[in-house]
Every structure is written in C-alpha cells, then in structure tokens.
Inverse folding.
C-alpha cells in the first residue's frame, strides 16, 4: 500500500498565502474604486474558471514534469501545433466524408495524439539522447512552432465555410457546466490519484528527489521519465483541443508564453524546479492566482503592464518565503 | 487560513455591495488590437472625447473603459477580454478584431447577451452580430496613394515608371485592400508602367521588412523608380534599406500610416508621401454609434448601412506641418477638433 501520510497530502501554505495576498489587494482596490463590484459577480467567477481551464490542464502535465526534476518549455508551441493539426484534420475529414461528428471525433483524437507524440519525442530526447530537459524541450519548442506555422501556411485557419460545429460553440462558452471545465476536474482528480496512490507516483517523487538513489532502489528511471513526458504531452494535446475550441480556429501564433505562465503558476503552487516536490492542489491554486491577477488587473482598469510586475513580484516573494520556511 | 480567506471575501463583498453604480451612466468598453501603437492611443482619445462631448451637450454620462491585449498577435487574450466584459456587464463594446474569423464567436456571444458591438479598424467575417463597422476605406486609401505617386513620377518626367509593390502579409485584409487599390489605380492612370515585383512580403515588423527589402532593392537598384509599401513598418523598413544602399531620395517611396520617424523622412524627402488614417475620429464615431444604439436609435438603417468611413488623407512634404494633417495624430490638436456626427432615427420608426 503506498504511503498516504498526512504530511504528503497536506496543502502547501505558500500558495494559500499568495491567494490571500491577491484577494486582499483586489479587496483594497474595490474599496478604493467603489461602485464596481463586477469583479466579485457570479458571471466573473464563470469567466475566471473558463480562462483558467487551459493553463490548468497544461499545468497538470507541467507538474508531473517538474516533480520528475525536468522542465517542459515546448507546451505553448505544442498547443499551437495541436490547434492547427485539429483544424487541418477536421477540414480534410469533413471534405471527404461530409460527416460533422466523424470529422470532429477524428480531429480531436488527432489533436491529442499530436500532443502525445511531441511529449514522447521530448521523453526520448531526454532519456535516450541524455539531453538536459531544458535543451530538449527548447528544441521541441522551435520545431513545434515552426511546424504549426508551416502546416497553417502562415495564416490562421478558420472552419470551412465559417460553420462552427456545436460542440466547439459549447466548449467556447463560459459556463459552470462547460465540458472543458468538467474535463479539467476529472483530469485533476486522475493526476492526484496517479501521484499519491500509485507506484508510478511514488517512483516519480523518488526520481525527482534523488535520481541516483531511486535507480539504486530499483526504479526504472528512464521508463518513469518517458512516461512523464508522454503524459504531459497528452495533457498538452487536450489543452490544445480546448484552445482550438476557445479560439474558434487553428492558429499557429496561439500559446505564446504559455509555458512561462504555466511554470510560474506551478512554482507559485509550491513545486520546485529541483524536482521531487509539488501537488495538484498547489498547481491549481497557482493557476488560480495568476488568473485572478490577470482578470482583476483588467476589470479594475489597472494599467495592463502591472499584471506582469505583480506576477513577477508574487513569484519571487512566494519562492523566497518557501525557502525560508524550508530552512 | 480558510477563515482568513473567508473573512477577506466578506469584506470585499460588503465593500462592493455598499456602493452601487450610478444608474444613468453608460459603460462603453473599447478593445483595441494591442496597446503599443500610437494608433490605438488616438482611438482612445477619440472615444474619451466623445464621452466628454456627450456630457457637455446632453448631460449624458458615458464611461470609457480602454482594455486590450498588450500584443497585437494575442487573439486568445482579446477573446478573453471580450468574454470578461460581456460577463461582468457593460452597455456596449467597441472592438478592433485581431482576426476577421477568429473573433466571430465571441462577438456572437456578446450579441446573444444583448450587448451591441461596434467593429472598428478591421473587418469581421460574420456581418450579422455587430451593429456598425467604423473604419478607414483602405481600398480608397490605396487609390489615393497611387494617384499621388504617379503624379509625382510624371512631374519628374517618368511616364513609364518602373514600380515595386512591396506587399505586407498574406491574409491581412486591410493591407490587401490598400495594395489592390494601389494596383488598380496605378494601372488605370499609367498603363505603360513596368511592375518589377509584386509578390514580395514585408512581414509584420520593421525588422522583417528590412530583411525582405534588402535583396529586393539590390536586385533592381539600377531600374526601380518607385516603391509602394502598404503600412508603417514596411515603409520604414524600405526607407532604412534605401538609406543603407545610398538610394534614398532617388527612389520614390509611398507609404501608409505614420510614425515620428516616417514623418521626418517625409520632411527630408526620403519618403514622397503617405496615406494617413483618422483613428481619433474612429474612436469618436464608434463610441457615438454604440451610445446611440443603446439609446434605442437605428444606427444602421435597419442593417442596410453597416459601414461608416472615417476618411483617409495624403500627407506630403508640403502639408506635413499643416494643422489639418497634424490634427490626425497630435493629441493637442486632436482636442481642438470638432467631429461631425451622424444623426439616426429611433429604432422601429422605420417602415
């Protein structure tokens, strides 16, 4: 039976402190501005959840990679590639079979698969060629972005005839019952189970904490790492499909700087770039904090550049605090 | 920790509940393509001026919220901003869509929520869900550019000029219209012109324009008489290249849009002219239409008059210092302009 000690399941305090700090800031702004209570409206909660869905799905994959001691810089480019692949496949199947549902299913499968393939490629580069993950995924970042632009023939692909399938409309709408949002909840639960209740999860923490020791204890480090990148790729692929629906297009310029946003969120959520640390709840809180800042800066009409400064300061403060406490 | 968070939420909620919005104030959200171009600052000033004029002339309170993505290539962020503003409530949206198709879904969502959307600057592929299109007539702008350039060439005795059309980017609707207007008019005015190149693309930055223009100019340096570049970055890049090859002033460059360096280049004669848009008027009239629609007026004659053109003007060495030209971009002169507004009947009053 894997270890389910309370310490491992305990929520990291750092992300909660960050969350509280952001709420406090916007509460102060509310008092200062007066009158504009839109930030706290139910409609905005829906919007916040909607905006957070894609980065949260990517963050789940990034969390796995960070726990293993790696990093994945290719996620933003892979998301863009997935949107283009999905649209290309959708258009091709629709043209040949004329059936919307068939085209949609094939396209979604192709999109997720494309993400998975990029992940496997990352994993092979890291485990077979022994490339540092930073370099391997930086290479994939370039390759995927380039492929996306090439496949899209340097433009943005729209739905053939301008007819958007119903499921894309549904996934694009902000709602508490958005299928993308529900899929995030399921995936988050699955990743949490994977991390805390399976042998793979235990191996993952072991590899991230100390690779040499893990190997000595009989953990197949290569296989674990390959699995991590493949899973991260599949999750990124799914995020790409959601992005395809949210943006209503196959667009090779989407997802720029997504990797940095997601790494920031996961690190604010208590994961360590050194590996071996991190939880699903922490990662989701990190995404929520970033989302709150972006949304709040926009709705309170704070100059948009403040959002970058706030996020930067928060990241530094959070990690510095975590380090002090850890000492 | 939980308790503390909950306490914070309670404080925030009570604060927001305490002070309600003024009931008669209309909130218009202006969403530009990006934040880092002077063009959008003029749009913003125009929108705010319209709000000030509405308050002064009929005592109507209009609040302008200017909220856009930082970068012009961030369609996802623009969609997010639209959804955010629709969900949190506004009385109208003025949108410069980054992409004519990608943005259709969120405009439709806004329309479904009952929010009037006025599209500015660039077209939207789905014409059924916005109430007015306020923009430059880019085709006419291209025509004006050709008229001026061909005129200048004829003044110099070049009745059979050799031309380069340096295009901007594949799929960019506004610049393609300018290129088409230029080509059509130049061919009509000067059927004997020789077109050295019409298939090279400058790309989206001054940097990429320089990279593309370098070999192009070098290849035709002995022949070319004039170059048309359909936006600011492509024109600036072209001038940079001509300067570096010592051809500035010898090859005539006609541009589109302006920036401080480009205006200096017009004064020094390195650029023969440029076509200016009127973003201030664009911001003013789009806000006007959104407000009038909100007040129950029929701003598009029952969807038969969707377009409102904001004008396009040729700037040359002779008029670059004139008040009418400087009023297009200079904030102080903009503030002194008087903008004529169209009047609309009440909705439903039409037969």
């Amino acid at each position: 039976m894997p270890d389910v000690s309370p310490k491992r399941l305990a929520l990291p305090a750092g992300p909660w402190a960050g969350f509280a700090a952001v709420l406090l800031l916007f509460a102060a702004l509310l008092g200062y501005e007066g009158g504009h209570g839109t930030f706290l409206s139910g409609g905005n909660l829906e919007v916040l959840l909607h905006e957070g869905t894609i980065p949260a799905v990517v963050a789940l994959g990034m969390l796995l990679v960070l726990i293993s001691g790696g990093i994945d810089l290719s996620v933003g480019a892979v998301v863009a590639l997935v949107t283009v692949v999905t649209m290309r496949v959708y258009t091709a199947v629709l043209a040949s079979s004329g059936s919307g549902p068939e085209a949609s299913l094939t396209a979604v499968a192709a999109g997720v698969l494309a993400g998975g393939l990029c992940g496997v490629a990352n994993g092979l580069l890291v485990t077979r060629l022994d490339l540092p993950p930073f370099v391997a995924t930086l290479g994939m970042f370039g390759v995927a972005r380039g492929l996306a632009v090439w496949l899209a023939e340097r433009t943005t692909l729209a739905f053939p005839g301008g007819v958007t399938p119903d499921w894309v409309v549904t996934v694009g709408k902000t709602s508490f019952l958005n299928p993308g949002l529900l899929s995030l909840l399921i995936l988050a639960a699955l990743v949490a189970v994977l991390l805390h209740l399976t042998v793979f999860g235990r191996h993952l923490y072991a590899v991230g904490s100390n690779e040499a020791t893990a190997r000595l204890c009989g953990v197949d480090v290569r296989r674990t790492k390959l699995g991590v990148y493949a899973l991260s790729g599949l999750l990124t692929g799914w995020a790409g499909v959601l992005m395809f629906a949210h943006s209503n297009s196959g667009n090779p310029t989407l997802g720029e700087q997504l990797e940095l946003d997601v790494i920031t969120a996961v690190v604010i959520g208590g994961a360590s770039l050194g590996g071996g640390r991190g939880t699903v709840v922490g990662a989701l809180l990190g995404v929520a904090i970033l989302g709150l800042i972006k949304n709040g800066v926009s709705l309170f009409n704070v100059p948009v550049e403040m959002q970058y400064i706030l996020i930067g300061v928060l990241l530094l403060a959070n990690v510095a605090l975590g380090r002090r406490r850890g000492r | 920790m939980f308790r503390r968070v909950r306490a914070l939420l309670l404080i925030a909620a009570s604060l927001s509940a305490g002070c309600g919005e003024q009931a008669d104030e209309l909130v218009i959200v202006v969403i530009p393509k990006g934040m880092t171009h002077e063009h959008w600052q003029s749009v913003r000033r125009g929108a705010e001026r319209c709000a000030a004029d509405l308050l002064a002339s009929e005592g109507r309170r209009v609040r302008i919220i200017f909220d856009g993505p930082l970068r012009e290539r961030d369609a996802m962020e623009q969609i997010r901003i639209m959804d955010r503003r629709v969900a949190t409530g506004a009385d109208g949206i003025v949108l410069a869509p980054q992409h004519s198709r990608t943005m259709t879904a969120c405009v439709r969502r806004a329309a479904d929520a009952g929010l009037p959307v006025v599209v500015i600057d660039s077209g939207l592929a789905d014409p059924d869900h916005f109430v007015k299109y306020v923009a430059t007539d880019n085709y006419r702008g291209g025509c004006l550019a050709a008229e001026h350039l061909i005129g200048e060439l004829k003044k110099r005795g070049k009745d059979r000029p050799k031309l380069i059309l340096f295009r901007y980017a594949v799929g960019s609707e506004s610049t393609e219209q300018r290129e088409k207007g230029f080509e059509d008019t130049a061919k009509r005015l000067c059927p004997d012109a020789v077109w050295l190149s019409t298939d090279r693309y400058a790309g989206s930055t001054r940097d990429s324009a320089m990279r593309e223009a370098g070999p192009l100019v070098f290849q035709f340096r002995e022949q070319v008489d004039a170059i048309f570049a359909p936006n600011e970055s492509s024109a600036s890049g072209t001038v940079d290249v001509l300067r570096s090859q010592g051809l500035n002033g010898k090859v005539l460059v006609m541009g589109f849009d302006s920036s401080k360096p480009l205006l200096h280049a017009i004064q020094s004669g390195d650029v023969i002219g440029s076509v200016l848009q009127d973003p201030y008027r664009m911001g003013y009239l789009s806000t006007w239409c959104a407000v009038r629609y909100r007040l129950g007026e029929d701003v598009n004659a029952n969807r038969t008059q969707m377009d409102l053109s904001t004008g396009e003007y040729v700037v040359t060495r002779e008029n670059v210092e004139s008040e009418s030209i400087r009023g297009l971009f200079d904030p102080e002169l903009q503030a002194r302009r008087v903008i004529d507004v169209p009047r609309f009947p009440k909705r439903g009053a039409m037969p």
About this structure: Residues 38-58 of chain B form the longest helix (21 residues). Residues 7-21 of chain B have pLDDT under 50 and may be disordered. Chain B touches chain A through 48 residues (CB under 8 Å). Residues 138-276 of chain B form a domain with the Rossmann fold fold (CATH 3.40.50.2300).
